[in-house]
Design a protein that fits this description.
By secondary structure, the protein is an alpha+beta fold. It has six helices and seven strands; from the N terminus they run H-E-E-H-H-H-E-E-E-H-E-E-H. It has a five-stranded antiparallel beta sheet with strand order 2-1-5-4-3, with helices on both faces. The termini are far apart.
C-alpha cells in the first residue's frame, strides 16, 4: 500500500489536518493533530473518530453512530460540525470539524480539518452565565433600573422601572 502524506504546507498548519480513508480511519495527520490527541503518529494512525471521542456528543448522539453519519455527509461534499474528542490523557476538547472529499493517489479520501474551539466554548458559557446573573439581579432589584445606549436611547429596563 502506498504511504499517504499530507503536504508540507498543510503539515505546518496550526489547525489539525487529517486524512481519513474510505473506512473512516485516520491514515495521516499533521503534528497539530498529534498535539491535540497527546499521541504519537503510531498510536493515532488507523484510529477512527469514535475511538477518540466521548461516548455521547453534546447533541446526545452516540459518537459511534454520529461519526458514521458525518463521514457519509462529508463524502457527499463539504460539511462542517462540532465534535467532542478525548485525548490519550483523558482530557476532553471540542473541535470544529471541516470535511471535504478529495482524491489522493487514486484513492477517495476525506480531508479533515479540526479547529480547537474549546476555549471559545468555555468563554461563551461564561458569558451566558454572566448574562443570566445580570438579568436576575436586574429583575430582583426593587429600584427602577433603566439602561441607555451611547445615543441615550433606552435599551432595557427592569419590572420596577415599568411599574
Amino acid at each position: 500500500m502506498q504511504t499517504l502524506k499530507i503536504s508540507q504546507e498543510l503539515a505546518a498548519s496550526t489547525d489539525a489536518v487529517l486524512l481519513q480513508d474510505e473506512t473512516g480511519a485516520f491514515v495521516d495527520c499533521n503534528q497539530a493533530a498529534l498535539d491535540l490527541m497527546k499521541m504519537t503518529r503510531e498510536q493515532f494512525i488507523n484510529m477512527t473518530p469514535d475511538q477518540i471521542s466521548v461516548e455521547f456528543q453534546p447533541n446526545g448522539r452516540r459518537s459511534e453512530e454520529y461519526a458514521l453519519e458525518m463521514t457519509a455527509l462529508g463524502k457527499k461534499g463539504f460539511h462542517r460540525y462540532e465534535w467532542t474528542c478525548k485525548n490519550l490523557e483523558g482530557g476532553e476538547f471540542v473541535v470544529e470539524v471541516s470535511l471535504m472529499p478529495i482524491t489522493v493517489k487514486g484513492r477517495e479520501m476525506l480531508h479533515c480539518t479540526w479547529r480547537d474551539i474549546t476555549e471559545r466554548k468555555r468563554i461563551d458559557a461564561e458569558l451566558r452565565e454572566s448574562e443570566t446573573t445580570f438579568r436576575n439581579l436586574l429583575e430582583a432589584s426593587a429600584d427602577a433600573i433603566l439602561l441607555q445606549d451611547e445615543t441615550a436611547a433606552f435599551v432595557d429596563c427592569n419590572q420596577a422601572a415599568l411599574d
